[in-house]
Amino acid sequence: xxxxxxxxxxxxxxxxxxxxxxxxxxxxxxxxxxxxxxxxxxxxxxxxxxxxxxxxxxxxxxxxxxxxxxxxxxxxxxxxxxxxxxxxxxxxxxxxxxxxxxxxxxxxx
Length: 109
Fold this sequence. Notes:
mainly alpha; 6 helices
């Protein structure tokens, strides 16, 4: 049986970003972090795909096409990334969205 060669370099960039901005992301029961990451790729870095397409591609590790965006996101200071994510919606909408999609242990106190 011949193994299919797999290029892990694109995945390593995604995992670097997730490790930096979402510590312990592997243990989470939700994938809300993909929504925030898709927002950054779509709105901040002007990607031409829809948010649903980006989220689905991230979820299924089809990240070759986002290498430039992921590299730029990785270089962002944590404070800037957090501020952008925290201010991307009106406060009441953000609270409702987080309550709906995040598991209790990941909700801000």
